[in-house]
Design goal:
The protein has 299 residues and is an alpha/beta fold. It folds into 2 domains: 167 residues, Rossmann fold (3-Layer(aba) Sandwich); 114 residues, UDP-galactose 4-epimerase, domain 1 (Alpha-Beta Complex). The protein has 9 helices and 13 strands. α1 packs across α5 and α2 runs parallel beside α3. The chain is globular, with a radius of gyration of 20 Å.
């Protein structure tokens, strides 16, 4: 296929671009060329808001829109395109209000989420515009993505604590559930959508099973062959000062996804692959001051 991937230089979009290059597809990436490009991609060096008619005469079998965060992002890209085959947008689970019954289902009404604020509402507006402009487009709503090329300070933060032989500080009792989805599984889901073309066009993505914070930290330390010394922190301290996830527990219903692909990568396997990438690319991580805060306030 001839595929257009928006972005293509960081985590999700970069992994997607390289995945489809390895598959043998002709992959174009749309970005401003401010970071190194992946081998094998064809660069469209431009801002998605200043494309004019530059894409009008290129037929893409598939658009994978990773960097659409609001209505304007979708409008400016779709206005620049001529004919194309399929359009898949990577949205977010942030579109579901925290007040809804869980697990969240695709048919539930989207709305403001107090934990995600404008990020969630902007994604809702992007989805609405895309659905109106491209009625047969597909929208994927993942939970926390992880895996190789993840430059966000999530599992890499835990890996770093394990490397430093630090105790790990967990909010409250560590029972808050987290739902993850490996980046390779996201690419596999995109493949399945293009092959099967399901009748439903909004798909929650994620591992069917959640994991609590305690187990997630143990799995991360276990990748390095270590057992964490876990210390619990009172809810009087804002967990975002020392921990990479919000104080918000939610679960997605992934029945639609399971009808397309029946298996997902075990979390332990995905974390091992993530650490293998991290060991050689730790300089790419966008770090926050968690360790400094821990040393100054919790140790």
């Amino acid at each position: 296929m001839k595929i257009l991937v928006t972005g293509g230089t960081v985590f999700v979009s970069r992994y997607i671009a390289e995945y489809f290059v390895k598959r043998g597809d002709e992959v174009y990436v749309l970005n401003r060329n401010t970071r190194p490009q992946s081998d094998g991609v064809i660069l469209i060096n431009n801002d998605r808001h200043d494309l004019g008619s530059s894409l009008r005469n290129i037929y893409f079998d598939l658009i994978i829109d990773v960097t659409a965060y609001n209505e304007e992002d979708v409008r400016d890209l779709t206005d620049s395109l001529g004919d194309f085959g399929r359009y898949i947008m990577i949205s977010s689970s942030a579109v579901y209000p925290e007040t809804l019954e869980q697990p969240f289902k695709e048919e539930q009404e989207c709305g403001f989420n107090i934990h995600w604020e404008s990020y969630g509402t902007n994604k809702i507006n992007a989805e609405k515009y895309l659905t109106k402009k491209v009625p047969d487009a597909y929208i994927i709503r993942p939970p926390y993505l992880y895996g190789k090329m993840n430059n966000l300070y999530r599992e890499s933060f835990v890996f770093e604590c394990a490397e430093k032989n630090m105790p790990f500080f967990i909010p409250k009792n560590g029972k808050m559930q987290l739902q993850f989805f490996d980046i390779e599984d996201l690419c596999r889901l995109i493949e399945k959508i293009t092959e099967i073309k399901p009748q439903y066009h909004i798909i929650n993505a994620g591992n069917p099973e959640t994991v609590d914070i305690n187990e997630w930290v143990r799995l991360c330390y276990g990748v390095l062959g270590r057992i964490p010394e876990i210390r619990y922190v009172s809810d009087k301290i804002n967990q975002r000062l020392y921990f990479p996830f919000r104080d918000y527990e939610y679960v997605l219903d992934v029945t639609n996804q399971e009808s397309l692909m029946t298996d997902v990568k075990p979390l332990e396997t995905g974390l091992k692959q993530s650490y293998d990438w991290y060991k050689n690319n730790s300089g790419l991580i966008i770090r926050k001051n968690y360790i400094q805060y821990i040393k100054e306030n919790l140790l």
